[in-house]
What we know:
Blueprint: E1 11-13, H1 14-19, H2 21-31, E2 35-39, E3 42-47, H3 50-78, H4 83-89
Amino acid sequence: MPTMRKSTNPAVTTAVARKNFSDLINRVAYGKDRVVLTRRNKPLAAVVPIEDIALIEEIEDREDLKAAQAALREVKRKGTIPWARIKKELNLP
């Protein structure tokens, strides 16, 4: 598991976030702040602008595509194992 780097984003306890939810959402949505929610002084979650989520999903899609392309290259190099053989080796019905 990667270690968390020191965040420069403001931290807010979950209790404070609940009390000021509307203000928190406005800070994130319109001010483009990233807010780390904490409980017992430990980072728990983050509230981020929707643009950040879109960027994260784009990065994940690129990484998935790279992994799929690598898997296809490996199949071309090494071939595949027939499903019947795998079932037999694993004693599957």
